[in-house]
């Protein structure tokens, strides 16, 4: 009833290949974009924008990256945190070496560095599969983290070992560094995310994405049908690491402003993997929903008692939050192993047939 | 406060947006960023208790400071920068006077933010050493001394015991450290001093995931057999290192830890083998101070403390927490004196911190005579390079093992200056200091 | 050219020269590597048991170590005698095994590997929160003396020098070897062990001959719990009992991929290769590039082996059909 495609005819190939073939989807996406671009910056409190929205959107980007690798190409990686770190350090180096170039260019360029590193650590994927590969990617996680600490050049030999986002602006508005308003940072993050999501959605539903899915479903069969495994798998690593790298650079420049290597630890890798699994493997929408759940919910739960005026020791709140999140993860894995993306589809189906369910 | 109208998702926002209480009359608000969870909770819990209990005691005994109650609120950081920044964002709008990040990572993340938003950061003997340069970092304070100062004291002590700094020539000093920015920070100074005095440095990094298995590091120590060992450790790294040192038979009275490696929990697990282990410290241990006894009387005995056993009051890290609160409380008093206001704000607090001076007499007055060396913060020096002493583990408790030793200011200061200018270059354009120095 | 030669000699000659000039130290290094190797093998064994029987890659093994050790020390602090506390800790681990089987595993039967992996990470979170809530985050001292673990040191003269052997390390090695041998015996010689292997081979076939999957799962999780308790006692006695102990479980992962997820001998051999390999690498080569390389060296060793045997040294051959 609310969501029916009846009466919407595709009259050309272009229509058939559109990202949003159904009118309701187009309206929906327009409404969501309007909310994201107008309502959130206008009405959201600074805390909401800076502490919930910005990290959530940045982690969505990383989740999309990992989803390309795990959800579409079927290669599990536990090195996401380190690949994000590569992006952050690359962006820091580029931005300090060439301060005159717009920082957004460097944020986008830093992804190429992590893509290159990703390809190197993707090489074993040709021989190693499944959980063995997952554990092998931990090599990347630990090795790169060691590099971040050890190679002084990466931090410009700073004695504190931290990397910082310098003040940079776009069209005269400061967007990074201390003093950048949360609205400016938020809009930058949102725009980058929307643009890269659009690119990702076109990659995954095109020729390349289909190859990835063939490899995911059965790589030997794919090989027999003429998919060359080496370039396909490595491309998946490259594209995935690109997204993760950009996310890492954004995390430094638009969220924290100053980071040390420990922030890119294995916990971050797990966090992003959770987003992908809870959100739904092989679904871009799922990456958004998963990131919302994993990144925003703990903050909400943690600060809820305080906001509601309930006095609880902060440590207890934190411990309970950790337990609730862990419990919810298990709960959702049991109830819907295909993630929120499947719930979303079921919801759409329900809307389609309402009020006459079969 | 703006009105939030969106329904989905913004119900939350609305809560955040409207529920921020304005500072009530005659109270000041101090958020305490603490960590009672995570891998470093062992050090975080006593510190948090100490900070909390001193303020509670002031509220209960004196009705606050200058008639103004101190409202504290703990926010759990788990020692991670992510949660630390969340805590900062969540509490800053409530009129936070000052932040105590209690983690190098959080300190580094807060320095640019807090500088911009004009809220002081008090990182007591941790964080960014260069923050001592008050001219560059008007909003950051790291009394009573920096890591570099601490290292110079350790070397001075080593020199004393060897019969003079010139006798260090040809000796080897081993440096075992947590392989993270915190542990690596002293290295430039250590190498500089090595050049000046002609000793050799052997470095033993301990990666964070090997904190509990340091056998390789100590095998290397065994092989190199350095004349002295210096440690920059934290959390689970400390007790493991002390145990391993005892195992390889390293002479414990030649093993010096930084002040964050010197709690009871660090030395106790080694049992009798830990006897003789030395660490730097800038606060006295024990509860034999009138103010600490007041904490027992007004807070612990009334069941208002989260300390479980009375014996924990007066332990090293607890006293560090108390000291941190003493610095804040005295800064509030100073600020009240300077501004003439009762209820001060963050900018006033900055003035108070910058003019902070706790003399020996003043320490006695607040019931903490001999608790710490006199502290004086100036506009130019936000750290002050104050003296520390060495304490030694006698198998059951820490005992004082040296006099108060002043750091080598002449060696440290140039490094601080260089580091501060590096920082500003990296973060250009770093705002020039616009705040006037308080008149003295 | 000279520089190249110099580097080559630093990498290829000097380390061996150092080994040759001080053989006692080499023995010491190998001993330390052996002890950590055995302890890695012990943790890896916990993973292998569960993976074999239920196909779950149990990331919660690390927190189970912490949880078991905390329960033991916590009970002892509450006044329970040491050995009774051990028994009670085992009961707690059994309850945990039953709970995990009922609440987590049973509803997730037949899900892909990654879902099960994530479920165990979720379980980790729950246990972390619960453990901190109950026991607090303070580090505790392992009750090694009460359990009769010796704390002295043996100094054995060798090649004019002394090799130091910590009795606790010796105990740990012996206990670990006994545990491993016991489990190997249990797997191959007992009725339950045969049932376990049947389940590992084929769930459905095992079900059809009357083996109760639920029961088997409880048994393996309980066995992993016992392994966790022993690991917790040994590592706890070497440092202290705190939540940081969770990290050491990560050290077992390269052992696992090296030895194969399903192989008990693989866990042992893998543990020894990694344990001794990373010590020798760190001591003799690590300092050429600044030291502290242990955190990733193990993975590199494992990767090197994997390139030749993708299923690990002793893993079951992966046969793929289209």
How would you describe this structure in keywords?
heterotrimer, A: 358 residues, mainly alpha, two-stranded antiparallel ribbon, 71% helix, 4% strand, C: 322 residues, ABC transporter involved in vitamin B12 uptake, BtuC, 70% helix, LivM-like (chain A), cell membrane (chain A), ABC transporter permease (chain A), ABC_transp_permease (chain A)
List the helices and strands and how they pair.
The complex is a heterotrimer of chains A (358), B (440) and C (322).
Chain A: H1 13-16, H2 23-43, H3 46-72, H4 80-97, H5 103-122, H6 130-150, E1 162-164, E2 168-170, E3 173-176, H7 182-204, H8 207-217, H9 219-224, H10 229-256, E4 258-260, H11 266-279, H12 284-307, H13 314-335, H14 340-353
Antiparallel strand pairs in A: 1-4, 2-3
Helix pairs in contact in A: 3-7, 3-10, 3-11, 3-12, 4-5, 4-6, 4-10, 5-10, 7-10, 8-10, 11-12, 12-13
Chain B: H1 10-18, E1 27-34, H2 41-62, E2 69-76, H3 81-91, H4 104-117, E3 121-122, E4 140-141, H5 147-161, E5 172-178, H6 181-184, H7 187-197, E6 200-206, H8 215-224, E7 228-232, H9 237-247, E8 255-257, H10 264-267, E9 278-281, H11 290-300, H12 316-339, H13 346-354, E10 357-358, H14 360-365, E11 375-376, E12 389-393, E13 398-400, H15 409-426
Parallel strand pairs in B: 1-2, 3-4, 5-6, 5-7, 7-8, 8-9
Antiparallel strand pairs in B: 9-12, 10-11, 12-13
Chain C: H1 2-21, H2 23-54, H3 61-77, H4 82-105, H5 113-135, E1 153-158, E2 161-166, H6 167-189, H7 191-201, H8 203-208, H9 213-238, H10 252-259, H11 264-285, H12 294-308
Antiparallel strand pairs in C: 1-2
Explain what this protein looks like in three dimensions.
- Chain B: Keywords: Signal.
- Chain B: Belongs to the leucine-binding protein family.
- Chain B: It comes from Prosthecodimorpha hirschii.
- Chain B: InterPro entries: Leu-bd, Peripla_BP_I.
- The complex is a heterotrimer of chains A (358), B (440) and C (322).
- Chain A has 358 residues and is mainly α.
- Helices cover 71% and strands 4% of the residues of chain A.
- Chain A has a domain at 44-265.
- Chain A is globular.
- The two termini of chain A are 13 Å apart.
- Chain B has a seven-stranded mixed beta sheet with strand order 6-5-7-8-9-12-13, with helices on both faces. A two-stranded parallel ribbon of chain B has the order 1-2. A two-stranded parallel ribbon of chain B has the order 3-4.
- Chain C has a single domain (22-308), classed as ABC transporter involved in vitamin B12 uptake, BtuC, CATH 1.10.3470.
- The longest helix of chain C is centred in the first third of the chain and has 32 residues, at 23-54.
- Chains in contact: A-B, A-C, B-C.
- Chains A and C meet through helix 6, helix 9, helix 11 and helix 13 of A and helix 5, helix 10 and helix 12 of C.
């Amino acid at each position: 009833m609310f969501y029916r495609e009846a009466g919407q005819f595709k009259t050309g190939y272009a229509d058939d290949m559109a990202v949003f073939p159904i009118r309701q989807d187009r309206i929906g996406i327009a409404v969501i974009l309007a909310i994201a671009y107008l309502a959130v910056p206008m009405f959201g409190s600074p805390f909401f924008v800076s502490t919930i929205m910005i990290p959530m959107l940045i982690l969505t980007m990383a989740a999309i990256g990992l989803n390309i690798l795990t959800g579409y190409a079927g290669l599990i990686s536990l090195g996401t945190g380190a690949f994000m770190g590569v992006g952050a350090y690359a962006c820091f180096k580029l931005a300090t070496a060439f301060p005159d170039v717009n920082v957004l260019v460097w944020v986008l360029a830093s992804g190429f560095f992590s893509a290159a590193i990703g390809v190197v650590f993707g090489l074993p994927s040709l021989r190693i599969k499944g959980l063995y590969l997952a554990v092998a990617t931990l090599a990347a996680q630990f090795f790169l983290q060691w590099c971040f600490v050890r190679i002084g050049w990466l931090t410009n030999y700073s004695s504190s070992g931290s990397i910082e986002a310098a003040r940079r602006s776009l069209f005269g508005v400061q967007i990074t560094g201390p003093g950048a308003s949360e609205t400016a940072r938020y809009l930058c993050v949102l725009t980058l995310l929307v643009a890269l999501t659009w690119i990702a959605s076109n990659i995954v539903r095109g020729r390349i994405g289909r190859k990835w899915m063939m490899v995911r479903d059965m790589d030997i069969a794919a090989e027999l049908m003429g998919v060359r495994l080496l370039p396909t798998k490595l491309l998946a690593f490259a594209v995935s690491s690109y997204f993760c790298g950009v996310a890492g650079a954004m995390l430094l420049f638009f969220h924290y402003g100053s980071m040390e290597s420990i922030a890119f630890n294995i916990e971050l890798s797990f966090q992003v993997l959770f987003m992908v699994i809870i959100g739904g493997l092989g679904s871009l929408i799922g990456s958004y929903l998963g990131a919302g759940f994993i990144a925003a919910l703990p903050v909400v739960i943690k600060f809820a008692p305080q906001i509601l005026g309930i006095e609880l020791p902060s440590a207890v709140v934190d411990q309970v939050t950790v337990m609730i999140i862990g419990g919810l993860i298990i709960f959702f894995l049991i109830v819907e192993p295909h993630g929120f993306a499947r719930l979303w589809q079921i919801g759409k189906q329900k809307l389609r047939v309402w009020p006459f369910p079969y | 406060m703006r009105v939030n109208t969106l329904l989905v998702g913004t119900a939350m926002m609305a809560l955040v947006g409207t529920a921020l209480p304005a500072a009530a009359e005659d109270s000041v608000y101090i958020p305490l960023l603490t960590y009672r969870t995570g891998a470093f909770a062992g050090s975080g819990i006593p510190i948090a208790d100490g900070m909390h209990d001193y303020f509670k005691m002031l509220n209960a005994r004196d009705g606050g400071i200058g008639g103004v109650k101190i409202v504290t609120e703990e926010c759990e950081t788990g020692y991670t920068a992510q949660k630390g920044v969340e805590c900062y964002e969540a509490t800053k709008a409530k009129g936070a006077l000052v932040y105590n990040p209690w983690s190098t990572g959080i300190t580094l993340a807060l320095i640019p933010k807090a500088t911009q938003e004009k809220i002081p950061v008090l990182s007591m003997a941790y964080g960014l050493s260069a923050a001592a340069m008050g001219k560059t970092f008007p909003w950051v304070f790291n009394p009573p001394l920096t890591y570099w100062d601490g290292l110079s004291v350790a070397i001075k002590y080593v020199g004393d015991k060897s019969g003079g700094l010139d006798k260090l020539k040809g000796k080897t000093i081993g440096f075992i450290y947590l392989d993270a920015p915190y542990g690596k920070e002293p290295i430039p100074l250590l190498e500089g001093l090595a050049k000046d005095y002609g000793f050799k440095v052997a470095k033993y990094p301990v990666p964070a995931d090997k904190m509990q298995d340091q056998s390789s590091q100590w095998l290397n120590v065994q092989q190199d057999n350095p004349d002295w060992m210096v440690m920059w450790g934290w959390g689970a790294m400390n007790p493991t290192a002390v145990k391993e040192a005892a195992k390889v038979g390293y002479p414990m009275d030649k093993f010096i830890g930084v002040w964050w490696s010197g709690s009871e929990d660090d030395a106790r697990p080694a049992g009798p083998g830990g006897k003789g282990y030395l660490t730097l410290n800038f606060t006295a241990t024990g509860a034999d101070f009138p103010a600490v006894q007041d904490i027992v009387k007004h807070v612990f005995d009334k069941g208002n403390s989260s300390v479980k056993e009375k014996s924990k009051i007066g332990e090293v890290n607890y006293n560090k927490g108390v000291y941190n609160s003493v610095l804040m409380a005295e800064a509030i008093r100073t600020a009240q004196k300077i501004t003439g206001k009762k209820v001060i704000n963050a900018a006033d607090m900055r003035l108070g911190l910058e003019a902070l001076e706790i003399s020996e007499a003043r320490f006695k007055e607040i019931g903490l005579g001999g608790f710490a060396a006199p502290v004086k913060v100036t506009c130019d020096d936000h750290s002050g390079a104050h003296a520390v002493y060495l304490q030694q583990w006698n198998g059951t408790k820490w005992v004082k093992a040296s006099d108060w030793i002043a750091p080598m200011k002449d060696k440290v200061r140039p490094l601080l200056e260089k580091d501060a200018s590096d920082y500003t270059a990296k973060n250009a354009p770093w705002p020039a200091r616009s705040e006037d120095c308080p008149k003295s | 050219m000279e520089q190249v030669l110099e580097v080559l000699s630093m990498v290829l000659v000097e380390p061996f020269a150092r080994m040759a000039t001080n053989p006692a130290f080499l023995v010491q290094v190998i001993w330390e590597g052996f002890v950590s190797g055995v302890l890695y093998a012990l943790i890896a064994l916990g993973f292998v048991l569960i993976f074999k029987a239920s196909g779950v890659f149990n990331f919660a093994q690390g927190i189970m170590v912490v949880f078991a050790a905390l329960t033991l020390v916590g009970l002892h602090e509450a006044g329970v005698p040491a050995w009774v506390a051990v028994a009670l800790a085992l009961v707690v681990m059994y309850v945990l095994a039953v709970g995990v089987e009922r609440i987590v595993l049973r509803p997730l039967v037949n899900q892909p590997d990654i879902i099960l992996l994530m479920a165990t990470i979720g379980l980790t979170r729950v246990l972390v929160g619960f453990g901190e809530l109950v026991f607090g985050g303070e580090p505790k001292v392992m009750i090694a003396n009460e359990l009769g673990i010796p704390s002295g040191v043996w100094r054995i003269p060798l090649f004019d020098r002394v090799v130091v052997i910590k009795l606790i390390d010796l105990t740990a090695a012996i206990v670990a070897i006994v545990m491993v041998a016991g489990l190997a015996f249990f797997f191959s010689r007992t009725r339950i062990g045969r049932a376990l292997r049947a389940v590992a081979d084929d769930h459905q076939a095992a079900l059809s001959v009357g083996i109760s999957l639920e029961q088997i799962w409880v048994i393996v999780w309980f066995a992993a719990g016992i392994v966790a308790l022993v690991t917790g006692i040994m590592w706890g006695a070497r440092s202290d009992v705190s939540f940081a102990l969770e990290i050491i479980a990560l050290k077992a992962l390269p052992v696992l991929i090296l030895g194969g997820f399903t192989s008990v001998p693989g866990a042992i051999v893998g543990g020894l290769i990694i344990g001794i390999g990373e010590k020798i690498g760190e001591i003799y080569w690590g300092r050429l590039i600044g030291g502290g390389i242990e955190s990733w060296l193990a993975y590199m060793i494992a990767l090197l082996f994997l390139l030749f045997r993708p299923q690990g040294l002793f893993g079951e051959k992966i046969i793929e059909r289209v």
